[in-house]
């Protein structure tokens, strides 16, 4: 009987930590969007899904458990001029402890050119007990670019505390800062579970929409959710052609419902 080696062993990683990058590039071609670059290694397996109109669609599936302590993971996606790109993941990303207490990194870099659009809609990130992850997302948008981004974090699986999780979202529009926020949860993050931040909830998420149309017609502020114990969401316009929906909930299911109620097209 032959036993296949794990993907980490096949990759020759005897020491803790995998270094891997996925690259996606979308280009406009007539009335369609093509993908001249679709490459992933390590835990990233990129699948080309059926296109929707002029939009190319990609699903990222996991080829191994990641991120673990010591891993260095990166995704780079570019929608060139006039291209339309939709990216999702097949399952939740689970941050695990791994063989070393060293933190893991998961960096996402998105670039959207003139008259292009990008939907970045991954499944939730789950921070498990004793994990240590630093996640960042950096986005550069041209003046006429459009973006739909959804982020969701679940702090601990059922019955367990979360690990250490820090996230940073940095968005530049036409070369100028549009949004720059950083959050920390779990051990060593003062007050993360207190009334000023999560108030006992374990699921947090947001939707960011950037669209030139918001420059002349910004959306109105809205509060969703009647009972704070069941979670609430707030929709606010940003100082630019953008809106931000932020939500808190006891679990991922109610979090997604709040986000979809605030902005269903995401």
TrEMBL record:
Query: What does the UniProt function comment say about this protein?
Result: Required for maturation of urease via the functional incorporation of the urease nickel metallocenter.
InterPro entries this protein is in?
Answer: UreD
Protein biosynthesis recorded as keyword: no
Primary localization = cytoplasm
User: So what family is this one in?
Assistant: Belongs to the UreD family.
Localization per Swiss-Prot or TrEMBL: Cytoplasm
Fill in the subunit field for this protein: UreD, UreF and UreG form a complex that acts as a GTP-hydrolysis-dependent molecular chaperone, activating the urease apoprotein by helping to assemble the nickel containing metallocenter of UreC. The UreE protein probably delivers the nickel.
- Alphabetically ordered keywords of this record: Chaperone, Cytoplasm, Nickel insertion
Instruction: Quote the protein name from its UniProt record.
Output: Urease accessory protein UreD
């Amino acid at each position: 009987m032959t036993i296949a080696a794990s993907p980490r062993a096949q990759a020759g990683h005897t020491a803790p930590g995998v270094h891997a990058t996925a690259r996606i590039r979308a280009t406009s071609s007539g009335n369609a969007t093509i993908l001249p670059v679709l490459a992933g290694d390590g835990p990233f397996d990129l699948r080309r899904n059926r296109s929707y109109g002029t939009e190319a669609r990609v699903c990222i599936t996991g080829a191994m458990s990641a991120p673990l302590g010591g891993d260095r993971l990166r995704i780079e996606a570019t929608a060139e001029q006039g291209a339309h790109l939709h990216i999702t993941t097949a399952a939740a990303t689970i941050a695990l402890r791994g063989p070393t207490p060293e933190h893991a990194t998961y960096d996402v870099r998105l670039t959207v050119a003139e008259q292009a659009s990008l939907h970045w809609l991954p499944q939730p990130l789950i921070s498990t007990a004793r994990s240590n992850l630093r996640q960042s997302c950096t986005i550069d948008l041209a003046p006429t670019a459009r973006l739909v981004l959804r982020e969701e974090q679940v702090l601990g699986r059922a019955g367990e505390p979360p690990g250490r999780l820090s996230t940073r979202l940095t968005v530049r529009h036409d070369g100028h800062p549009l949004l720059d926020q950083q959050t920390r949860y779990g051990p060593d993050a003062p007050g993360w579970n207190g009334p000023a931040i999560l108030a006992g909830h374990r699921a947090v998420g947001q939707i960011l929409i950037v669209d030139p149309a918001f420059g002349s017609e910004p959306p109105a502020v809205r509060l969703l959710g009647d009972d704070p114990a069941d979670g609430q969401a707030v929709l606010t316009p940003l100082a630019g052609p953008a809106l931000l929906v932020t939500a808190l909930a006891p679990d991922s299911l109610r979090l997604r419902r709040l986000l979809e109620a605030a902005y269903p097209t995401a």
